[in-house]
């Protein structure tokens, strides 16, 4: 039986590092943002390397799902961007996945996003869509699906990934904590535009979020609009039980 994991994230989180982590498991195949071309074709948006992305993947959501469903392996890890799931794209296929949600404070996301792409909207950072997908999955399951905060992974990779693996129904593998530097054949064709930092990495670095960033007014309005959705998701995030005799970790 293949365990298929759909990890739903917004941009400028640690989503690619998480993909590296799972790919370093000997039992796992990873897929990098399979709906990216379908999203660009549907929206007509101009992203870095747009033509290359469109040529590299199916542009219809049904064809994307058919390709995902055909991937073999004990574990398949699908890295998804929530904003790629447009309203017209079907979602019934997600019931065959263990769905999880990777979150980051929207102000931190925006401060990082504008370094790579100068224009940004609330839709671009995917927080609202992430909350919608979470609510849909929670309603289906009858309980909250796993939510992981990127800062928690960076602060305690073994503990947080261990809790995530347990919630997904797979064993934790210490191989998830480090990986060789460099590009992967599994990386999307867009890697040269976005993955420079992760290509230099060999593991999870120190926590990135150091205080509230100073944002211009237009980005602050977006962050403020996104914050209620982020806070609602953060209320369900996985926490690590402390050893006996220790106080719980705050965060």
- Poorly predicted spans: 246-251
Number of helices: 11
Shape: globular
* First-last Cα distance: 36 Å
Q: Would you tell me the overall average pLDDT?
A: 93
| Overall number of strands | 5
CATH architecture: 3-Layer(aba) Sandwich
* CATH topology annotation: Rossmann fold
For the sheet with most strands, the description reads: 5 strands, parallel
Strand content: 5-15%
**Helical content band:** 40-55%
- Looking at the chains present, what oligomeric state does this protein adopt? single chain
| CATH class (first level) name | Alpha Beta
Number of structural domains = 1
What would CATH call the homologous superfamily?
A: P-loop containing nucleotide triphosphate hydrolases
Strand order, largest beta sheet: 2-3-1-4-5
CA-atom Rg in angstroms: 17 Å
Order of helices and strands: EHEHHHEEHHEHHHHH
Backbone structural class:
alpha/beta
What descriptive keywords fit this protein?
251 residues, alpha/beta, Rossmann fold, five-stranded parallel beta sheet, 11 helices
Structure description:
The protein contains 11 helices and 5 strands. It has 251 residues and is an alpha/beta fold. A 5-stranded parallel β-sheet has the order 2-3-1-4-5, sandwiched between helices. It has one domain: Rossmann fold. Helix 2 packs across helix 3, helix 5 (106-116) crosses helix 11 (217-234) and helix 6 (127-141) runs parallel beside helix 11.
């Amino acid at each position: 039986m293949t365990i298929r994991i759909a990890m739903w994230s917004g941009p400028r989180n640690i989503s690619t590092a998480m993909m590296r982590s799972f790919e370093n498991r000997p039992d796992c195949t990873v897929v990098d943002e399979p709906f990216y071309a379908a999203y660009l074709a549907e929206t007509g948006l101009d992203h870095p390397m747009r033509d290359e992305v469109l040529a590299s993947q199916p542009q219809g959501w049904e064809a994307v799902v058919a390709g995902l469903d055909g991937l073999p392996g004990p574990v398949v890890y699908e890295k998804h961007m929530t904003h790629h799931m447009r309203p017209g794209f079907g979602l019934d296929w997600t019931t065959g996945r263990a769905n999880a949600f990777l979150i980051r404070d929207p102000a931190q996301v925006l401060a990082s996003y504008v370094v790579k792409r100068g224009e940004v909207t609330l839709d671009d950072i995917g927080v609202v869509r992430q909350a919608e997908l979470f609510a849909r999955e929670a309603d289906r399951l009858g309980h909250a699906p796993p939510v992981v905060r990127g800062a928690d992974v960076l602060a305690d990779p073994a503990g947080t990934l261990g809790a995530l693996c347990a919630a997904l129904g797979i064993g934790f593998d210490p191989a998830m904590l480090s990986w060789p530097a460099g590009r992967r054949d599994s990386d999307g064709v867009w890697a040269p535009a976005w993955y420079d930092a992760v290509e230099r990495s060999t593991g999870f670095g120190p926590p990135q979020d150091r205080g509230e960033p100073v944002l211009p007014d237009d980005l602050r309005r977006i962050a403020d609009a996104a914050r209620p959705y982020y806070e609602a998701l953060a209320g369900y995030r996985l926490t690590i039980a402390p050893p006996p005799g220790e106080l719980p970790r705050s965060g």
